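Example S7 (C-alpha cells).
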C-alpha cells in the first residue's frame, strides 16, 4: 500500500506541467502551440525572447529535475534504501512528466525528470552523463542527441561504476537505467527521423 500511494504521489508531482504554467503566465501563450508543441524545457524556452531563453530553460529544467529528485529521496528514506521500491517511485515521477493528465496525457520527453531521479540514485554517473550531454550537444548542435547520450551514459555508467553490485543488490537501478536509455530513444524517435531526413532537428 505504501508503494502504491508513493507511486501515485510521485506520478501526480511529476505531472505538474511547469513549462506550460510558466509560459502561460509569463508569455500568455500555450507552450503546445510553440515550436514542436512539446512541454519540456528546451521547447518552452523558445517562447521567450533573448536574453530570457537560457534563464527560463534553466529554471524549467531545474523544476522538472526536482520532480524526479524529491519523490526519489523521500522513497529512499521511507523504504530504508530498498532499491526496488525507490526505482518504482522514480519511474512514476518520470511517467507523470511524460503523460501529464493536466495536458491531456501529453508532456515532456522525460530528460530533466530522469536526471532528477539519477541525481539521487547515481549522482557521479549523472555528472558524467551531463558532461556527455554538453559535449555531444556542442559537437552536433542537436539537443536530442545530447539527451540520448545522457541515457546511454547512465546505462553504461551504473554498471561500470559498481560492477560488483550492478547485477546484485543494485540490479533494480541497473535495469532502470537500461530501460531509461531505451525510453529516451523512444521519446526522441521523431527527432531521429527528422534528423535522418533533414540533417537537423531541434525538437524540444
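Recovered sequence:
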Amino acid at each position: 500500500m505504501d508503494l502504491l500511494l508513493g507511486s501515485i504521489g510521485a506520478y501526480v508531482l511529476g505531472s505538474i506541467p511547469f513549462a506550460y504554467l510558466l509560459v502561460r503566465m509569463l508569455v500568455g501563450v500555450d507552450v503546445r502551440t510553440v515550436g514542436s508543441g512539446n512541454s519540456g524545457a528546451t521547447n518552452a524556452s523558445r517562447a521567450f525572447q533573448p536574453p530570457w531563453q537560457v534563464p527560463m530553460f534553466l529554471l524549467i529544467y531545474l523544476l522538472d529535475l526536482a520532480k524526479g529528485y524529491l519523490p526519489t529521496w523521500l522513497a529512499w528514506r521511507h523504504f530504508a534504501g530498498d532499491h526496488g521500491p525507490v526505482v518504482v517511485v522514480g519511474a512514476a515521477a518520470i511517467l507523470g512528466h511524460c503523460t501529464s493528465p493536466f495536458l491531456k496525457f501529453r508532456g515532456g520527453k522525460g530528460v530533466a525528470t530522469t536526471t532528477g531521479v539519477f541525481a539521487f540514485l547515481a549522482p557521479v554517473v549523472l555528472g558524467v552523463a551531463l558532461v556527455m550531454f554538453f559535449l555531444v550537444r556542442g559537437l552536433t548542435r542537436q539537443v536530442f542527441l545530447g539527451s540520448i547520450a545522457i541515457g546511454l551514459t547512465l546505462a553504461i555508467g551504473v554498471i561500470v561504476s559498481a560492477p560488483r553490485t550492478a547485477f546484485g543488490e543494485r540490479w533494480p537501478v541497473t535495469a532502470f537505467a537500461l530501460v531509461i536509455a531505451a525510453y529516451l530513444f523512444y521519446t526522441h524517435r521523431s527527432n531521429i527521423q527528422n534528423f535522418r531526413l533533414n540533417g537537423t532537428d531541434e525538437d524540444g
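Notes on this example. Residues 2-198 form one domain.
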